[in-house]
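Hypothesis: this fold can be encoded by more than one sequence.
Test: take the structure tokens below, design a sequence, compare later.
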């Protein structure tokens, strides 16, 4: 017996794969931006600004943001709450004449502390603004690489870094010299 599918289905993850809705092919009506192998340190916050613009041929009414990372191996025998490095995804959406709303991944009302694949999808309109937050909340290792994929319609996507602690500022300058924080 099959149960009805929902957007976040515990049996099938994010559901059926649709190439047309995942990659901007020649007839697609949305954009794709990938930040791959981004390095984040413990307690650090990466911020991405997205300005929604439905100009030219882009007409998607959704903004989708997916964060994934290869988590270190959990201890043998771990059966629940086995995430080693917890990176949190959240997004603040500002709409014209409305109070900004804070969104969390995977249909939750709080940060996801269980999964290493997190996704936020929200309806957007021309002129809206989204600020995406990637926060290395609790890392067992000094740093973690992640991938962030953004799909939708926008005029500009800009990455900026926010630091949580003073000691990370020196580390950030070294990373910038080595190209680690460049887009």
């Amino acid at each position: 017996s099959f149960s009805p599918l929902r957007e976040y289905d515990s049996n099938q993850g994010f559901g059926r794969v649709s190439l047309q809705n995942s990659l901007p092919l020649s007839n697609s009506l949305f954009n794709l931006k990938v930040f791959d192998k981004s390095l984040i340190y413990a307690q650090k916050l990466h911020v991405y600004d997205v300005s929604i613009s439905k100009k030219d041929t882009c007409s998607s009414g959704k903004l989708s943001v997916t964060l994934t990372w290869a988590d270190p191996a959990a201890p043998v025998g771990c059966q629940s709450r086995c995430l080693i490095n917890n990176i949190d995804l959240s997004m603040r959406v500002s709409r014209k004449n409305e109070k900004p709303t804070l969104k969390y991944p995977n249909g939750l009302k709080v940060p996801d502390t269980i999964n290493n694949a997190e996704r936020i999808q929200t309806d957007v309109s021309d002129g809206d603004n989204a600020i995406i937050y990637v926060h290395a909340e609790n890392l067992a290792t000094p740093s973690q690489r992640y991938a962030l994929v953004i799909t939708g319609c926008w005029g500009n996507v800009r990455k900026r870094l926010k630091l949580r602690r003073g000691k990370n500022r020196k580390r950030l300058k070294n990373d910038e010299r080595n190209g680690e924080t460049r887009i």
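Strands lie at 31-41, 45-51, 62-68, 86-94, 101-103, 117-123, 129-138, 143-152, 156-162. The chain is about 10% helix and 40% strand.
Hypothesis status: open.
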